[in-house]
Amino acid sequence: MTECPVKLRGKRGPEGALSFKETLAHISFWDNFTVDFFSNKLDLDSLDPKLLVNFEERSKEAMDAASKLPFGEVLAQYLEATGALTQFLGKHWADLNPREQHEFGVPLKHRRHHRIALFQALDDMCSEKDLVAEA
Predict the structure, then answer these.
(1) Is the Cβ–Cβ distance between 42 and 92 less than 8 Å?
(2) Which domain holds residue 51?
(3) How many helices (H) and strands (E) does the chain have?
(4) How far apart are CA 130 and CA 135, in angstroms?
(5) CB 10 within 8 A of CB 72
């Protein structure tokens, strides 16, 4: 992830695609939401119905907050959220019923979509020469 040239980290991609930094923040929000959502499903005693309230607004707020942070902090949040997601999957996948396992695919596909779009945009925005110059 740190291979992205500094000058491109905050630059939006073609047709207004999220920047590298924005994509990391967006995926972090989704990963954290997913872990919270499915943790709540597994622990009915602590079920929080407010989790889904204002989802889009909370996502926008998370993106706005990340825009004010240095790239390294956003990257650290992304890595932490990714770790929480993979840890949850490793620990609780078998605890989810088949429907919940299927539903878990939605945020995973969303995550994959953004990662693919990000790397395609980076390929379009920078040359090998740019990447080598940053190394």
Answers:
(1) yes
(2) 16-134
(3) 5, 0
(4) 9
(5) no
Q: What is the mean pLDDT of residues 81-85?
A: 96
Burial of 87 (0-12, 13-18, 19+ CB in 10 A): exposed
| Contacts of 6 by beta carbon, 8 Å cutoff, 6+ apart | 71, 134
Q: Which two tokens stand for residue 74?
A: 């956003």
The number of domains in the chain is 1
Domain for residue 113, yes or no?
Answer: yes
Q: Is residue 28 included in any domain, yes or no?
A: yes
- Is 128 a member of any domain? yes
Domain membership flag for residue 7:
no
Q: Which residues touch 112 (CB under 8 Å, ≥6 apart)?
A: none
Read off the pLDDT of residues 7-56 as tens digits, 9 standing for 90 and up: 666 666 656 667 788 889 999 999 999 998 899 888 876 666 666 678 88
Q: How far apart, in whole angstroms, are the C-alpha atoms of residue 10 and residue 63? A: 12
d(CA 4, CA 53): 35
105 vs 38: CA distance, rounded Å: 12
Question: 3-class SS at 135?
Answer: coil
